[in-house]
Amino acid sequence: MNRILLFLNRFIRLYYDGFRDMPNWGRKIWIIIIIKLFIMFAILKIFFFHDFLKSKYDNDKQRSEYVRDQLINSHATHD
Amino acid sequence: MIDNFDMSLVDWSRAQFALTAIYHWIFVPLTLGLSFILAIMESIYVKTGNEEWKRITRFWMTLFGINFAIGVATGIILEFEFGTNWSNYSWFVGDIFGAPLAVEGILAFFLESTFVAVMFFGWNKVSKKFHLTSTWLVAVGANLSALWILVANAWMQHPVGMIFNPETARNEMVNFWAVIFNQVAIDKFLHTISSGFLLASMFVVSISSWFLIRRREMYMAKRSMLIAGIFGFLSSVLVAYTGDSSARTISQVQQVKFASMEALYEGKTNAGLVAFGLLKDTDRKIGNKTVKDFLVKIEIPSLLSVLTGGDKDAYVPGLKDHIDGNVERKIMATPEKMERGKYAQGVLQIYNRARMTGDKEQIESIKGIFKDKDFQTNYFRYFGYASVQKPEEVIPNVSITFYSFHLMVMLGFIFLLIFAMALYFLFRDEIADKRWFLWIVLFSLPLPYIASELGWILTEVGRQPWIIQDLMHVSGAVSQIKTGSVITTFILFSVLFTGLLISEISIMLKQIKTGPRH
Q1: How many CA atoms lie within 13 A of B70 on its CB side?
Q2: Are strands B170-173 and B162-165 parallel, antiparallel or unpaired?
Q3: Cβ <8 Å between B352 and A26
Q4: Among residues B371, B395, B419, which one ends one of the domains?
């Protein structure tokens, strides 16, 4: 038990010290990562990237029917 | 219903996916290769105890960290697009994509995120050996996580190991090992990771050249160049070998792509390999597509026949063989494939009607047809052809396919030469005085990135008009969303990724100028 606690303590310290002693470029990188993830998950995913089939149909049966219909009626007009 | 389909939606969706994939791929190969270079450098440090090697390793680790952090999660946007823009495709591929991507997610999370932290934060806090093990595990983990997405992509080039279930309208994996050991997947994995090794080696050699030009950190630059030069030279040989193997596989499973790569319209024996060529339009047409011819070309006689068929008398089919068919060579004409695809589509239509009328006997009978080997091999494998209206549609853009292939190969040989020359000058201890060479190497830094992107352009453009080879036409794969929203996100992605790239380059340049810390 003590050994597990000791390991956990060392593990947490590793992260704590790592972030505390991070050089300037590291801090900049973390700011970029946070901004990037915010744009991706809080803006793009929520406002622009709804799952098309999930948002349009309630269950997998309906989704299957829709896609099957698309497959049956698909023919392109591309040259 | 997509009878009156808005092609601009398909084109914009493709452009958006291409943009995000191309940007994502700027970050990935450096991670794949540099992680191994770091592991090698750190191994030398642990073995020799020489603190200079620790300093060298930590310098390159800083650049690795910048690239890793900026690039991490950029691939998730591609998954957003699958659900939003390519919903029919995402549904149709079913668990074939889901399973490998889930494995990738778990591996990436546990292996990379845990050991990357030890790699960066663990210096002087964990034992040397544990730190070294973490660095190696990051390298192995990064490359293994690439395996799964490449397996999924390989399935799109050569779909195997699945059965289509008409009830769910999804493909279900019936043979996991066939999907994993798909020859395209093996070739693709080895070729992609070795090209990542090559790119990272060029990165290290180029930046080391800058230090040598500035006559700074000479010891570090020479040692780094030596490691990267050897690693890059070996990787270049592996890239050439796996590239050759990939091309042979394409000549078997994606014959139209292969003929386009060589701009080969008329099939022939004694087919020569085009080493260099420039294309021009001719007055001739296949349907409404203009036939290309060579303005100039340098050809190695019979080599294409030898490479693909084992001897010079081997017949290499041309694009016309695939469109018109060739009975003598047992090549099925595209109109015949279109008929077979329509037949398979018709069976699915009967299934749909049976479901509406509640005809259980008919439903079960058709489910059996989809499980039948003969139906799968002779009809369902051409399912995508039901969406083709004119046979010539199945020819991809020959110019893009031809040039991306030949430029990539040409660059590959240039890299081999650069690594060989770097090693030659290093062993003669003349590298610092060969300033012309150092400048060339420095300005060659973008070239492996271009070569790597060209490889993906060849892979994806050469597969058109299919999103899944022969099974699903790209126009049938897109979601029925407004083109305007795709254009909006295209612009947003352009801004986001360009911002990330500028950040990466500026932070990296600053760290390079600062140099390794004492």
Answers
A1: 29
A2: antiparallel
A3: no
A4: B395
User: Does residue A63 belong to the interface with chain B, where contact is any CB pair within 8 Å?
Assistant: yes
Of A14, A29, A44, the CB nearest to B69: A29
- Interface predicted TM-score (ipTM): 0.84
For residue B130, give its domain range. 7-254+397-461+463-514
pLDDT, tens digit, for every residue of B84-127? 999 999 999 987 877 777 777 777 767 767 888 899 888 988 99
* pLDDT above 50: residue A6: yes
Q: How far apart are CA B319 and CA B394, in angstroms?
A: 10
Chain centroid to CA B178? 20
pTM (global) more than 0.90: yes
| Residues in chain B, total | 518
> What's the domain count of chain B?
2
Place of tokens 């139906």: B375
Q: For B471, name the nearest residue in chain A, comparing CA atoms only.
A: A71
Q: Extract the tokens encoding B516.
A: 């390794």
What would the pLDDT profile of A39-57 be if each residue is shown by its tens digit?
888 888 888 888 899 999 9
What is the nearest CA distance from B2 to chain A, expressed in angstroms? 6
| Per-residue pLDDT tens over the stretch B355-409 | 999 999 999 999 999 999 999 999 999 999 999 999 999 999 999 999 999 999 9
- Whether residue B2 is contained in a domain is answered as no
- Residue B380 has which token pair? 């369902």
In what helix (H) or strand (E) does residue B472 lie, and over which residues does it extend?
A: strand B472-473
How distant, in Å, are the alpha carbons of B100, B297, B299, B412, B457 from that of B406?
A: 31, 12, 12, 10, 12
Phi, psi of B73 (to 5 degrees): 75, 0
Q: Is B49 left (phi over 0), alpha (psi -120 to 50) or beta?
A: left
Of B458, B481, B494, the closest CA to residue B8 belongs to B481
Token pair for B361: 């006997």
Residues in B closer than 8 angstroms to A44, CB to CB, are: 77, 80, 489, 492
Of B374, B395, B416, the one marking the end of a domain is B395
What residues does each domain of chain A span?
Answer: 2-73
Mean pLDDT of B213-228: 96
Instruction: Give the pair of three-digit tokens for residue B30.
Output: 């450096």
Q: Is the pLDDT of residue A58 over 60?
A: yes
